[in-house]
Amino acid sequence: MILKNKVSLVTGASQGLGKEIARRLLSEGSQVAICARDSGLLDAVAGELREQTGNGDRVFSATCDVSSSAQVGRLFEAVLCEMGPVEILVNNAGVYGPKGESAAAPFAEWARAIEINLYGTFLPSQFGIRQMKRIGRGKIINLSGGGATGPLPRISAYAASKAAVVRLTETLAEELREFSIDVNAIAPGALNTRLLEEVLSAGPEVVGQAFYEKSVKQRDSGGVPLEKAARLCVYLASEKSDGITGKLISAQWDPWENLHEFREQLVNSDVYTLRRIVPEDRGLKW
Predict the structure, then answer these.
(1) Are 204 and 257 in the same domain?
(2) Does residue 62 sit in the same domain as residue 172?
(3) Which of 38, 72, 88, 137 has CA 20 to 30 A from 12's CA?
């Protein structure tokens, strides 16, 4: 068990990918704290995890809105009291936000998606960093995805916030290199979770015909297995990945199982990062 006795916190862990990540971390020996806004779903998942390990002391759960500084502060204090300082933080909580043309998006809903996806990554990271600095080590893993690497018409709040999460990841990684705290983002792939169901329920007239058809195909094919992203989280949480930081890594497409073999090359390159493309990059002489 490569994470034995490590203290992990997974946000948005009441279903889907967050639940699978928590399960994987637990199976590798970590103590696992989970949070979400829905207390009913959260309690059910906590019960499943306790049954999995047979030791209730290794699982802690608490409701929390990760966009609220006060609630996140209370969460980290509770985890500290119950388990100790957080060594592994997985910022998984996220929403699509309003769907449809940006010009018609209700601003309150658009802004709320930014709060959950971006504030909800920054705030747990801020409190987590404080605890990690005290113990001299840490791992922060942020969930990004396709919305960060290309335009996502009609789901603009999600796309904008996930791109921001990647640049936040890169920035925190540079700030924290000297403290042995690695910060990375992962793209989990096209998952068949509640977000997919939201797109299908919205229909082609809202999300666009092309994206709707792509989503139907994804549903019918089964999507990318949740376990791929969960295993990548375990890898990035482990000592094996020490020194790999500031990267956006695809669970589906990148050879992440062996990235530690290329650690020195990664440290000195912009591989797996978001960068501006200039004419010279495409052989143009403007």
Answers:
(1) no
(2) yes
(3) 137
